[in-house]
Amino acid sequence: MGATKKAMPKDTAIISNYRSTGEGFTTTQRYDKKVSKGQVFRVFESLKDRPKTMLMVSNETGIERANICRYVATWRKSETIKIVEKKLCLVSKFRASYLTTNPTLFPVSNQLSLFYNEK
């Protein structure tokens, strides 16, 4: 009466959910890891061309804006993306941040350094 486990492909994740009774059940959710990496690369390359808002990148690449927001949050922590300016978005006509991943377009900080070497 025991159920035999089926061999699952490597690109399948198991999500466990538990009811209030304590009885557990599992569902399998298939996802493609290559699709996610491809999206990250396409967003990064799109922002490298010229500064754009997340909505502009979403319209250009066809990737959902929620995914782009998650990628931008990760890149902000690692400082690989910067806000160039805040102005009206060409698509939504609302004030938005124009982002870039191109280091040559990063804004220069005009803040004085606290510790500097005097000669």
Distance between the termini: 83 Å
CATH superfamily of the domain at 33-102, please?
Winged helix-like DNA-binding domain superfamily/Winged helix DNA-binding domain
Rg, please? Answer: 22 Å
Count of individual beta strands: 4
Query: What structural category characterises the helix and strand content?
Result: alpha+beta
The ordered H/E elements are EEHHHEE
Question: What features would you describe in this structure?
Answer:
Helices cover 33% and strands 23% of the residues. A hairpin with a 5-residue loop joins strand 1 and strand 2. It has a domain of 70 residues: Winged helix-like DNA-binding domain superfamily/Winged helix DNA-binding domain (Arc Repressor Mutant, subunit A), CATH 1.10.10.10. Helix 1 packs across helix 2. About 18% of the residues have low confidence. With 119 residues, it is of the alpha+beta class. The termini are far apart. It is globular, with a radius of gyration of 22 Å. The strands form two sheets. It has a two-stranded antiparallel sheet. Strands 3-4 form a two-stranded antiparallel ribbon. The protein has three helices and four strands.
